[in-house]
Sequence to fold (199 residues):
Amino acid sequence: MAGVSQREARKAADRREKRALEEQSARSKLVSRILKKPEELRTKEDLAVLAGCVDTVQAMEKRKQKREAQKRKLEEVLDEPDELKKKIKLLVTAVQEARYLVIYSGAGISTAASIPDYRGPNGVWTSLQSGRAVSATDLSEAEPTLTHMCIAQLYKEKLVQHVVSQNCDGLHLRSSLPRKALSELHGNMYIEVCTYCAP
Fold:
């Protein structure tokens, strides 16, 4: 008999917990709807709900600020010509004075070859999150971009000693950068290696 009452007590506790979670979810949805309204259109009832859910409101506002900060990070910013000239001069000086220059490259340098990045405005993840279809690209037809060619030239002129790339598209090698000057962190989709063979 005692086992039945413990079981019933556990079931009752589970039901209370489930009900509390459902109420919390409904309250969160209501708060979210109210926060989406312009402040001048919020009713007295809306304000009372917000006043009674201060923690939920603060958590939602914090999440909103984080999302907006993430969006701002994705925005492409174009410098004014004068500002760009200053930055180029600084870069030239840094490259010329470097004792051992390593370039780190990522998906952004291959976008001009019609290979999408992940987080950019037309990136794979950005498109998927917005419900847009991701276009298929034949990577075998991609050509090295101007950036790839400039990096290869900097290496030939002994201004760059090594390139570390997150890309696996093989465009650095196709730009004539020697394999010994390249570390491909995620491998190369055109090179197969036997995992059982000695390197």
